[in-house]
Design goal:
mainly alpha; 2 domains; 2 strands; membrane
């Protein structure tokens, strides 16, 4: 149990450190900060207003994924699944189909859980 609390403390310390750095960057560069972490840029939106503008008002602009590599297309059904398709009419139809089957109100039809107090045979 002690090991877990050490990891949790390290996670909190790292998170607090990142938050401090992001606050400093926000004060200097504004509410949207791009950092190159590894080979890809990471975009941090640091205010509620900027997040709302980017994700609600301009959500369709940011909704899609970058184009997949050719090997990814071959291995992942040519981007025809809800988790790989680019945002657009195909993705919307796939999401609608997925939600019709896996909507929380219908999960009891998909997963038949045994009644409480009964044995599973």
């Amino acid at each position: 149990m002690g090991g877990r609390s050490i990891y949790l403390s390290l996670l909190i310390a790292c998170t607090n450190g990142v938050l401090v750095v992001l606050r400093q960057l926000r004060a200097r560069y504004g509410p949207i900060v791009t950092l190159h972490l590894g080979s890809e840029p990471s975009i941090f939106i640091t205010t509620h207003e900027a997040a709302h503008k980017a994700l609600v008002q301009g959500g369709s602009i940011f909704a899609s994924r970058p184009p997949a590599l050719e090997t990814t297309r071959i291995m992942l059904s040519n981007e025809t699944t809800v988790t790989t398709a680019p945002y657009g009419p195909l993705w919307l139809q796939l999401r609608q189909n997925f939600m019709s089957a896996f909507h929380p109100s219908r999960l009891h039809y998909v997963f038949r859980w045994p009644e409480m107090g009964t044995e599973h045979t």
